[in-house]
Design goal:
The chain is of the alpha/beta class and 466 residues long. The chain has helices at 18-30, 41-50, 67-77, 92-100, 113-126, 151-164, 180-190, 208-216, 233-236, 252-264, 290-296, 301-307, 324-338, 348-355, 362-376, 413-431, 436-443, 447-456, 462-465, and strands at 10-14, 34-38, 55-59, 82-87, 105-108, 142-143, 146-147, 170-174, 198-202, 217-218, 230-231, 241-245, 266-267, 276-277, 281-286, 310-314, 345-346, 381-382. Bound molecules: adenosine-5'-triphosphate (ATP) and magnesium ion.
Length: 466
Amino acid sequence: MNTCQNSVPKILVVDDERSMREFLEIMLQQDGYRVQCVDDGEKAARALRDQSFDLIITDIRMQPMDGLEVLKMARSVSPRTVVIIISAYSSTETAVAAMKEGAYDYLPKPFQIDEMRTVIGNALESRNGNGRPPPQPEGPLYFGCLMGESPPMRRVYELIGRVASNSSNVLITGESGTGKELVARAIHGQSPRSGRPLVIVNCGGVPENLVESELFGYRKGAFTGASSNRKGLVEAAQGGTLFLDEIGELTPALQVKLLRLVQEKTIKMIGDTENTEVDTRIISATNRDLEQMVMEGTFREDLYYRLNVLPIHLPPLRERSEDIALLARHFLSKFSKRFGKDIRKISSFALDILRNYDFPGNIRELEHIIERGVALEASSIILPDSLTLSTHKRSRNKAHETHAPALPEGTDLDSYLAHMETRLLAGALKQADGVKHKAAEILGISFRSFRYRLLKYGLASEEDAS
Ligand SMILES: Nc1ncnc2c1ncn2[C@@H]1O[C@H](COP(=O)(O)OP(=O)(O)OP(=O)(O)O)[C@@H](O)[C@H]1O
Ligand SMILES: [Mg+2]
């Protein structure tokens, strides 16, 4: 459920309290939105599987499915739908749980109409202009949410463009944090299936029986606790795309069940005797070496070949260091806005350090480094000191590598360092045409610190240094 066809935003209201549903329905219709109201979580789940919504406003306490479950369902079935939680039982715990699960905002009841209007307006705006795709600059610099202009990334964009139009299965490989999920989203978003759901299933870290019931659904009475029929995520992806993340973690038993889906395009709900036909495109992703797993006998060869019809490999960030500055600036602007700070630049020294870092955690790690940097930085520019790089054994920060110079015997460290510092200060001043603020920036230090050093080494008088 990616982009709504109609430009008028569509809102789903979920509340078991009739007066609240009616109030919101009237208010939202008056404001020109399309509205649907349901009185419990299960009806919301059904509505979500059948239609696309731009926004959900949901109560927390409801039976049989509560607002947090509606939120989780929405995140999985329709990731672009924003969710606002409302609850009479305002407690910080619920709010924190909801925000952690990805809710856009939380409003305790009773709320002011204007307050609700503002939150709705901001929430819809956060989806980039009421569901319209984000404005794209010319050229292949961006592709969906993907950024990067290095030759390997351009090849990835080209592949996405080529595979999007058909329904063959795609296997995305690459180290952790290289953007596999973003690529899956881009393929779905570019495909003729984009009006239908993109359903994301994480196959790792979840017990086998849970993955099975989540994927295939169950019939009432299939096991203790199965009090009603429940469709699985594969069916939720009917007509759309099923993204199977961490496919290398699937147990052998689930590999067999998945093979049936891939080969025959049918599934069997737990407790069912009948097969159900499904039309879904499968995109899988892994950071493991599936070929090696096939050789070791831990991943089925037949399944591997069927999933890997169209392979896309994402190169690690250290192999496309041309993209580092672009990505770093993108994250800088994102986190400056988020933290309400006015930091617009990364000093050239700081960028050099990043360009030469190994990034074992790839783009996710770069994003976290910049996030921390923005949080820590007190000045208006990201300086090397605010970068916290991991000391992971694979990191090879060339900028910190020591090329020990051959020193004349008897050289003492302090005078050597003073000599080097003076040269660097003078060099930066020259490069900056005497503009001290610019020189400080080149060296990645604050103006105060630069001024102090000019005075210390006698490179400027009190008057000149200001
Ligand atoms: N090319 C890119 N441009 C902008 N942001 C990116 C790019 N690639 C990845 N990211 C960002 O980096 C983070 C990690 O990306 P993603 O979750 O897609 O990686 P992944 O390969 O699925 O990782 P994992 O194997 O750990 O699940 C996300 O926040 C994503 O938005
Ligand atoms: Mg991922």
